[in-house]
Design brief:
The protein has one domain: Dimeric alpha+beta barrel (Alpha-Beta Plaits), CATH 3.30.70.1060. With about 110 residues, the protein is of the alpha+beta class. A hairpin with a 4-residue loop joins strand 3 and strand 4. The protein contains two helices and six strands; from the N terminus they run βαββββαβ.
Length: about 110
């Protein structure tokens, strides 16, 4: 099996005006989804990300504080899964409850660089 990363972008639940209850409900669903993947032997890792950070850009190594673009482009977290091919990884992504919050999941195979 190959490793695939699922990048979670633009969930409405992470917007500043959302309720704590909405965030808690999503966390509960996400934990259940991850536990199901774990039971199937498909889960490698999951990590939520803080909303704020910095970017280091180009050969000048310019540092920008938290400029990430539009809300729909912000990566809020990621999960790494095992799948036979990208179609199977996409099927895993399609079952993710974060999609209920109008998020986008980018699915990419992780290259083996050995």
């Amino acid at each position: 099996m190959n490793k695939f990363i699922l990048l979670f972008r633009g969930s409405e639940v992470y917007k500043p005006d959302q309720s704590a209850e909405a965030l808690d409900a999503l966390k509960t669903k996400m934990i259940s989804w991850v536990l199901d993947l774990t039971a199937k032997g498909l889960h490698v890792a999951s990590e939520p990300m803080q909303r704020h950070g910095r970017q280091v850009i180009g050969s000048e190594r310019t540092v920008i504080d938290g400029a990430y673009g539009r809300e729909s482009e912000i990566v809020g977290g990621c999960t790494i899964v095992l799948a036979n091919d990208i179609d199977a990884a996409v099927d895993i992504a399609r079952a993710c409850p974060i999609l209920e919050t109008n998020a986008t999941i980018e699915v990419r195979e992780i290259q083996n660089v050995q």
